[in-house]
Amino acid sequence: MTPAPLSPAVPWRPVLARGVLLRRDRVRGADLLLLPERVVVLDGGAGEVLRLCDGVRDVDAVVAELTARHPRAPVAAEVPWFLDRLRKEGWLG
Amino acid sequence: MTAAAPPWALLAELTHACPLRCGYCSNPVELAGRSAELSTGQWSEVFRQAGDLGVVHTHLSGGEPLLRRDLPDLVAAAGGAGLYTQLVTSGVGLGERRLAALTGAGLRSVQLSVQHADPVAAERIAGARSFAAKKRAARLVRAAGLPLGLNVVLHHGNLDALDDLVRLALDWGADRIELANTQYHGWAARNRAALLPTPDQTERARTRVARWRERLGDALELVWVAADLVDTTAKPCMGGWGAVSLTVAPDGTVLPCPAAGALPGLEPPNVKDRELAWIWRESKAFNAFRGEAWMPEPCRGCALRTVDHGGCRCQAHALTGDPARTDPACRHAPDHPLVHALVHGPAAHRPAYAYREGGP
């Protein structure tokens, strides 16, 4: 799992790491991250955030899209922090 | 009857055939023959039903699943049912073209078995030439960019090589190494005297694992599957009976744990006769030890019952003849003296491994 570039000149375009799968679980009514020996049950809007992580959008674009969808939510404050946490877990590259 | 939450994982034992003959093999002494194996279509239907039931992970295992020529079709069928597919393999037969076919079919990750860090010792344990094939398989999996986990079954013959095993995992580029102390089921029970470690050996290895964890941090995930007999603590077997996962054996028999086929009177159901949903929710086999109603004392009144679920039913059966007794591994179990005698008995003669002869 390659760490994302840290240089601010190259914006990070988050995408799920190889071997990590985002899935809607229709039986349990939840979004899941599936990893080799692990299932992460995602809370609330986390699945919606990760569906925008397509390797094309950079973090600003992800934030802009979510802000447009949810103008009253604290997107700009929380989403970059959330994405960074998943990058540290090795789930986003 | 306890209402059952849906299962998360399916262990799909695609075949009992295997090029290795590991002394610690926990598959049954009597293996299912190749002609009894489920067909491609039957397995595809199992995956579909499993996905509908709530399963999200499947471990494609065996035996050696690469001996199924239709393996890419099975990977595709499992993926199509929404399941995350992990291949559990010896690595023997995992060449470049085979791996490309599997990744093309949607395979997500690979778990590779390793017997020892030293090739000669590894092949003595496996009873077959295999070390070079494993090393090559690891390299190919990494080159394909798939997550790689190693699985080492630990016992008297490799616990002292713990450091070398961790170095091998680093050298081979693994993301994870599972260090699983032997469970004495199936064929492994025959080799108990050869495999059972001394308490000192186990304790040294456990200490080394803790050191490596400190040193490596996130660079390599180290999983230590406890040595329940030595620890005098019952393991939370399968996360509880019929609670988290199910096993489908090569002939379609469905079991709450891979070793449960040996239990008397279980009458395990088969996917050829019944839907998985019925099997999971309604069958006698899956409800036999589900929840806490079946528990005897001292489990019934013990605070640990929600943690260890009463331990391992197969071990209770193997050591006492009664699967409903408290797991004798537990220091509170009435039958614990049996385990104490096994572990602390006079240093026994170490017999050579008994190997399986012939295939299924």
Find the count of extended strands of chain B (DSSP E, 2+ residues).
Answer: 9
**H/E element sequence of chain B:** EHEHEHEHHEHEHHHEHEEHHHHH
What pair of chains forms the biggest interface? A-B, 15 and 22 residues
Largest sheet of chain A: 3 strands, antiparallel
Number of domains of chain A: 1
Low-confidence runs of chain A: none
Explain the overall architecture.
The complex is a heterodimer of chains A (93) and B (360). With 93 residues, chain A is α+β, with helices and mostly antiparallel strands. Chain A has one domain. Chain A has helices spanning 46-51, 59-69, 75-89; strands at 21-25, 30-35, 38-42. In chain A, strand 2 and strand 3 (38-42) form a beta hairpin. In chain A, helix 2 (59-69) crosses helix 3 (75-89). The termini of chain A are close together. The model of chain A has no long low-confidence stretch (mean pLDDT 90). In chain B, strands 7-6-5-4-3-2-1-8-9 form a nine-stranded mixed sheet. Chain B is α/β, with parallel strands linked by helices. The longest helix of chain B has 18 residues, at 199-216. The interface between A and B is medium-sized, with 15 and 22 residues.
Q: Short summary of the structure?
A:
Chain A is an alpha+beta fold and 93 residues long.
Index terms:
heterodimer, A: 93 residues, alpha+beta, 3 helices, 17% strand, globular, B: 360 residues, TIM Barrel, 15 helices, 35% helix
Topology (elements, then pairings):
The complex is a heterodimer of chains A (93) and B (360).
Chain A: E1 21-25, E2 30-35, E3 38-42, H1 46-51, H2 59-69, H3 75-89
Antiparallel strand pairs in A: 1-2, 2-3
Chain B: E1 9-13, H1 40-53, E2 57-61, H2 71-80, E3 84-89, H3 96-104, E4 109-113, H4 119-126, H5 131-143, E5 148-154, H6 162-171, E6 176-181, H7 187-190, H8 192-195, H9 199-216, E7 221-225, H10 228-231, E8 245-248, E9 254-255, H11 276-282, H12 284-287, H13 305-308, H14 313-320, H15 336-344
Helix pairs in contact in B: 1-2, 2-3
GO biological process, one term (chain B): molybdopterin cofactor biosynthetic process
Family (chain B): Belongs to the radical SAM superfamily. PqqE family.
GO molecular function (chain B): 4 iron, 4 sulfur cluster binding; cyclase activity; iron ion binding; oxidoreductase activity; S-adenosyl-L-methionine binding
